[in-house]
Design brief:
The chain is α/β, with parallel strands linked by helices and about 350 residues long. The protein is built from 11 helices and 15 strands. Helices cover about 25% and strands about 15% of the residues. Helix 10 links the parallel strand 11 and strand 12. Helix 3 packs antiparallel against helix 4.
């Protein structure tokens, strides 16, 4: 064990000894690393999934036991040529092409089976390629770091190869089964969509939660609605000057609310330019590198908001891309009965 991780382990031991009665020793007690330091995991020096450790057998059973069996809400976007993407930043946009068509296969006869067989089976095949942060997706903890280090002190100089990260790859994520909470900020303000570049504040979130009569709990997957998804079929308008989260709002979700994962219906979660206040890092770095909190982007939330479904069972899993810093996600929301305990 390195001196870096030994010091972290000693700090965790002392922190556990100081926990109040009834507290869970696996929950971070010092949640904001000072200055420009990455977060060191309270789940140990080999931890690669951060706050996803909060998913347990008990937490899954608790939320699934409340599912009503009613409507299922699909929270994923379609993929289509020309869709919103980061191509202006130099990243590959979504591409889709035919590799086989029924008539083309008859003409080409690529397998040498003859015209009759090819006509009978009417074969279609396609291929696609894209940047990993396209469509509904989840960011892994290696997506952002600080001075070459990422969550838990892993270093690019030691753990990043030409075929991806050797640690914290998105394939390490477990299936996401947790309590989900929608915070409809646009709805709370009485607008269809927040204005361009609007920076969601802590007070905005608190106001919306009061209006919805819902609370945040440790281990939640919390999704913020700005209304931006209404422009998803207008890529340039969707990408231009999006509203998004402020750093203080993100701190409220994770530090005060106990969120495990955060997400929104825009492509950047935050808005631009990124905030860097005092000695703090930008929002993505704060969440991923310091808090170990994955981020979900481009989540389709309008149907949940329309039906006022603010609490639900969130179920989804990213593609298991080894060493990947993100992966497509197909999440669903299942409405739940009120929790009599709370």
């Amino acid at each position: 064990m390195s001196l870096h991780h030994l010091a972290a382990a000693l700090g965790l031991l002392l922190g556990a000894l100081a926990l109040p009665a009834g507290a869970h020793p696996s929950v971070p007690t010092e949640r904001v690393p000072s200055g420009q330091q990455v977060g060191i995991s309270p789940w140990g020096p080999t931890d690669e999934i951060g706050r996803l450790n909060l998913i347990t057998d008990a937490s899954r059973a608790a939320i699934l036991s409340r599912v009503t069996g009613g409507k299922v809400y699909d929270l994923a976007t379609d993929y289509y040529v020309g869709m919103p993407s980061w191509q202006d930043a130099g990243d590959p946009h979504y591409q889709f092409w035919m590799t086989h068509t029924p008539q083309g296969t008859v003409i080409d006869d690529p397998m040498g089976v003859g015209e009759t067989m090819n006509s009978t089976r009417s074969y279609t095949g396609t291929a696609f390629s894209m940047y990993s942060h396209t469509g509904t997706h989840i960011d892994a903890l290696n997506h952002f770091g600080i001075h070459g280090r990422i969550w838990n002190g892993f270093e690019a100089s030691r753990h990043l190869g030409d075929r991806g990260w050797k640690v914290t790859g998105v394939e390490k994520f477990p299936p996401l089964v947790a309590r989900g909470v929608l915070i409809d900020v646009a709805g709370a303000k009485g607008v269809a969509m927040l204005p361009d570049n609007y920076r969601v504040t802590r007070q905005d979130l608190q106001q919306a939660l009061r209006r919805q009569k819902i609370d945040l709990r440790q281990g939640d997957i919390v999704l913020i609605r700005t209304g931006r998804m209404q422009l998803f079929d207008q890529p340039r308008a969707y990408m231009a000057n999006p509203p998004g989260m402020s750093l203080d709002a993100a701190r409220f979700l994770v530090e005060d609310g106990g969120a495990m994962v955060v997400g929104a219906d825009n492509l950047s979660f935050e808005t631009f330019p990124s905030e860097v206040a005092d000695d703090y890092v930008p929002l993505h770095t704060y969440l991923l590198a310091q808090q170990g909190a994955p981020i979900i982007e481009l989540v389709a939330l309008d149907a949940l908001a329309r039906d006022r479904v603010y609490e639900f069972a969130f179920i989804g899993g990213p593609l298991k891309i080894r060493g990947g810093d993100a992966a497509p996600l197909r999440p669903v929301a299942l409405p739940v009965r009120p929790d009599e305990i709370h």
